[in-house]
Amino acid sequence: MNKLILGLPKGSLQETTFQLMAKAGFPVTSSSRSYMPRTDDPELEIRLIRAQEISRYVELGMLDAGMTGYDWIVENGSDVEFVSELVYAKQGMRPVRWVVAVPEDSSIQSAADLAGKRIATEAVGLTNTYLQKHGVTADVEFSWGATEVKAPELVDAIVELTETGSSLRANNLRIVDTILESTTRLIANKDAWSENQWKRAKTERLALLLEGALAAEKKVLVKLNAPEDRADEIAGILPSLQAPTVNRLNTEGWVAIESVVDESVIREIVMELKEAGATGIIELPLNKIIP
User: Fold this and answer.
1) Of 27, 34, 48, 171, which shows the fewest CB atoms inside 10 Å?
2) Share of the chain above pLDDT 90, in %
3) How far apart, in Å, are the Cα atoms of 168 and each of 154, 165, 225?
4) pLDDT tens track for 52-105
5) Measuring CA to CA, how many Å separate 185 from each of 81, 152, 199, 210?
6) Which residues are registered as beta bridge partners of 44?
7) What are the residue ranges of helices labelled H in the chain?
């Protein structure tokens, strides 16, 4: 049987990635000590690996494909095939940022002020590239973790990954500059992509389903009944991907209308729908929207 070996990120992105995989149709189960989670697709073998390492293993062909941050692909300088951009993170559907942060009372205000300073970070390569871009020389050291607590006692500045900035603020740090904005990417080994038709097709199908699952986030299917003579008015109130679907009911003079809309929109238009004559309004969650 053909198999695709897929690397998924262990750590902060793990739970969100498992949820996304499940919505895409690939429920993943894993024990707390297992690095080989299971899914019900016999053609898919999953490896749970730190996001920092996935792109290297994809490049080397130990993984056929993987999901990891664009930041770690750049940090590793990995030569891989970019299949799909998947905009999600640990706390929401948004990009994350690598930022330069300093203590609130620091005199550092810009990249130029980092000259001769000590900087702690897990992304040494990204940081050195940033400093070179600005013509600045500084002492960059690898941080094994808890980077926020190292300034100002141990270092002058840090380069850290942030989604909302809350952890930095909690540690009395302020952002000086953004080095890189990153999103999760589905990547593939270049040989597997170009030379193995089955693996490429499997990876493309996975990408389509993952993109469909993300497209369905925060959207719902709204269904309602309406008097036929007011169907156009009610359909006009409903936003939709293309146009609301209208079907005649067995009850004379009535139609059923359905549309996919942003979940937040419903609270704004539900009274308008009722006043226009809509009844039996229901809202259903969606797993995927395939364009």
Assistant:
1) 34
2) 79
3) 16, 5, 50
4) 999 999 999 999 999 999 999 999 999 999 999 998 876 667 789 999 999 999
5) 10, 34, 17, 11
6) 4
7) 14-24, 51-60, 70-76, 124-133, 166-170, 190-195, 197-215, 231-237, 263-275
d(CA 48, CA 14): 9
Q: What is the pLDDT of residues 188-197, one digit of tens each?
A: 999 999 999 9
Question: CA–CA distance from 98 to each of 101, 154, 216, 233, 260 (Å)?
Answer: 9, 20, 28, 48, 35
**Peptide bond just before 152 cis, omega within 30 deg:** yes
Cβ count within 10 A of residue 289: 16
CA 153 to CA 10: how far, in whole Å?
31
Q: Look at residue 165 in the predicted model and tell me its pLDDT.
A: 84
Strand partners, 261: 220
Q: Which SS3 state, helix, strand or coil, does residue 185 take?
A: strand
pTM (global) more than 0.70 = yes
Residue 159: closest CA among 90, 93, 57, 75: 75
199-202, long-range: CB < 8 A, 24+ apart: 199/2, 199/4, 199/64, 199/65, 202/2, 202/4, 202/43, 202/44
pLDDT tens-digit map of 106-121: 999 999 999 999 999 9
Residue-wise pLDDT for 84-94, tens only, equals 999 887 666 77
Q: Are 171 and 97 in contact (CB under 8 A)?
A: no
**Residue-level pLDDT at 145:** 83
